[in-house]
Amino acid sequence: MEIIWLAVLAVLLVGYFALEGFDIGLGMMLPALARARERAGEPGTRQDHRDLLVAGMAPFVLANEVWLVALAGTLVGAFPALEGPLLGGLYPLVVALLVAWILRDAGLWFRRRIDGPGWRACWDAVLCAGSWGLALTWGAILAAVVRGLPAQPFDLAGLLGGAVVAAVFTLHGRAFAAWRLPPAGGASRLLLTGVLAGLPAAASLAVTAGHVLGHAASPATLNVLGFIALPVTPILVAAQVWVWRTFRPARSTGAAARVPSFF
Amino acid sequence: MNVLDLARLQFAVTGSLHFLFVVLTLGLAPLVAIMQTRHAITGRPIFARMTRFWGQIYVINYALGIFTGLVMEFQFGLSWSGLTHYAGDVFGAPLAIETLVAFFLESTFLGLWIFGWNRLPKGLHLACIWLVTLTAYASAFWIMAANSFLQNPVGSVLRDGRLVLTDFGALLTNPTFVMALPHVLGAGMFAGSFVIIGASAYHLFRRTAEQEFFRRSLRTGVVWAFIGSTLTIGFGYAQFGFIGALQPHKFEGVLPGLALGLMITIGQLTQFAVMLVLLPLLIRDVLARARWLHPILMLMTPLPFVAAILGWLTREVGRQPWLIYGRLGVADAMTPGLTKGMVTLSFAAFAGVLGLLALVDYLLIARTVRRGPGQADLGAPAPDGPGRAAAPALSL
């Protein structure tokens, strides 16, 4: 039973990196990608390009970021003895991660709520900064986890971890934008960068898997969790598939392309 | 203030902020679903407009529910790791189920509902908001189950210094859960309805162009307020039946005692006002035409929110000094090695960021109300004419 829950944890962690990775990467690259589109002679202002890019990822964000919420829940439920030492040991990094995450989300939710270039540009900057914060703290967190939670996680190894995650996320975000925006294409490249984005997470989990297994909840608790979560799993998968089917580029032409985006 | 006080204050502030937004989410979600269903059945445009307008207020509010909820979820591990160490096997299960089974689906379906407008087939789009409502209520169910375990730790035995789950069913038949869940859900309807009543009163008072829209909304709000306030009050008083036996000293402290008294005063008076004044005045739309009453209705909007926070203060402060009543003290549950500097920094960061965003969010809700249903962004249809098809400001 512990093995199954370790697998759940792995799927959620790697899935989060592979999926939310492109949202974060696109957020980081928002100014650069908008400038690139402008230079390429696409019609519209720089703000229009940013709107288009954000609208491209908007339908996916809610379905992607929730993988991390589920991951934290699984940690509390199935590996409770691990949750405290892990979050306590990563205290400043987890606080930074949460603040960055909230700011990135606030940028998304608020940017279109008031018309006017100043308001939107301001929240776009918050979105971009929050995305950078997310990538860098994730890198530092993975680096700290692999090294057994050092007292001072803001060191060279932490920075290096941040740089690696930032690099794979920006690649992934770029690939997603290319796949999603017209002329849409490059699904296999998106798949490849997805694997790449999931790699740092998978590697750090592989290093620590034995340690994680030793902190599983009692069999009774794991049974209850499995009994309730298992029947719902097909629905979870179906809901995610539904998102991808609904918002894939092929479905986004004609009238659907003119529907204003809420984010 | 020592590190324990700070950590408690941080939890109280972020928890109260969370609940301010969650309570409105719970109250508005089913109403928006009902409005959309009425549009699906009757095909009348007014119900589509109501769905979009109240739906937009619902989703703007929802954003802060997420932000504050994230902090809540991680705070257990950050500040209170003693809780998961001691009782993770029991307390962790409902929390894990909430995230996996309820919130995961809620967030996914909400994304489909918001961005699937004018893209998904009408029936499936309607199904999305009902699924969002269902999973939001499932979330409340599991969170309340977890919280009730802290009030009255059933279904577990102490083994080698840690609580072990022996009877999962007992968590779900816990009296502090069975009676508190409808109380909280009723409080959600109560709060949601008062936002609708207050916003409608504003437009009726200002005599804006949307009189029919807000007359109808006011009626819906008052009926919803009657159901919600009755549920809240009924299941509120019902809790006195067992609380004396389970937590005999719950209301003896200064703060819990005061908070309880004030909550009951606000809740009871407001419920009387709804039942004896607002509801009868719906006959022949007297309430919608009694313009002098509208400023009072607007001023009453915050009352259920204040009562809800007071209710949580009663429930949680009344549990002190226990984190798990009778089993684990709050001081013993604090993360080892937590320093005053760490908590001060995180408290400043969370309270500062969330407080600021909450303020922005409320201003945005007020702005949405002021602009009225004509200008709702949510569910805006594609503009007519092929000439604007290339406009990059649009979605894909």
Extract low-pLDDT stretches of chain B: 386-393
Biggest β-sheet of chain A: count, sense, barrel? none
Output the structural class of chain B: mainly alpha
Please state how the strands of the largest beta sheet of chain B are arranged side by side: 1-2
Alpha-carbon Rg of chain B, integer: 22 Å
What does this structure look like?
The complex is a heterodimer of chains A (263) and B (396). The longest helix of chain A is centred in the N-terminal third of the chain and has 33 residues, at 46-78. Chain A is mainly α and 263 residues long. In chain A, 80% of the residues lie in helices and 0% in strands. Chain A has one domain (2-258). In chain A, α1 packs antiparallel against α6, α1 crosses α8 (187-213) and α3 (46-78) crosses α4 (80-89). Chain A is globular. Chain A has helices at residues 2-28, 30-39, 46-78, 80-89, 91-110, 117-146, 156-180, 187-213, 219-247. Chain B has 15 helices and four strands. Chain B is globular and about 65 Å long. Chain B has helices at 3-42, 45-79, 81-115, 122-151, 168-172, 175-178, 180-206, 211-238, 240-246, 254-278, 286-289, 294-300, 303-317, 330-333, 340-371; strands at 156-159, 162-165, 322-324, 328-329. The longest helix of chain B is centred in the first third of the chain and has 40 residues, at 3-42. In chain B, the strands form two sheets. Chain B has a two-stranded antiparallel sheet with strand order 1-2. Chain B has one domain (3-378). Chain B has 396 residues and is mostly helical. At the A-B interface, α3, α4, α5 and α9 of A face α2, α3 and α15 of B.
Quick structural gist:
Chain A has 263 residues and is mainly α.
